[in-house]
Specification:
homodimer, alpha+beta, four-stranded antiparallel β-sheet, elongated
């Protein structure tokens, strides 16, 4: 079967309830800049992967494996995968 | 007017065409792990902001200002704002 190229975005975020010092720092900086209505900020990673696969489902399954094996820390982070977009 | 709470996500990515050493490193690591079909990886930040505003449009406008003033580097990064979700 011929492979097609797909673009898939992954969001990796600190697990809820864990400390997020980077987010707390940004919250403080925004308050100092006058954005007083900000309640909280959480910082994660936005990773865009272009990969080849026979179809969108297999592309997503492959990215799921990448997250489990390399991209996300299974102890401290959660990830979500957006649906594959053909290129 | 009474304020409501909204959750807004922002994706901040390196501007297209600029070097992305972190993305290149991850691409190489994925190839080493057997994901040979990966073409490219781009790494940005995924920031989730909870803020109060009279309505969704003003919440989004406020986050746009935060990106311009603090969160994104206007020389090297692009950002996109997702629509405000009431909490």
């Amino acid at each position: 079967m011929k492979n097609r190229a797909y673009r898939i975005a992954v969001h990796i975020v600190p697990r809820a309830g864990l400390l997020d010092p980077q987010g707390n720092t940004i919250t403080g900086a925004l308050h100092s800049l006058g954005f007083k209505h900000v309640r909280s900020v959480h910082v994660g990673r936005h990773i865009v992967i272009e990969t080849e696969a026979p179809d969108a489902l297999q592309a997503e399954a492959s990215v799921q494996q990448m997250c489990e094996k390399l991209l996300a820390n299974p102890v401290t982070e959660d990830f979500e995968i957006t649906s594959a977009v053909p290129l």
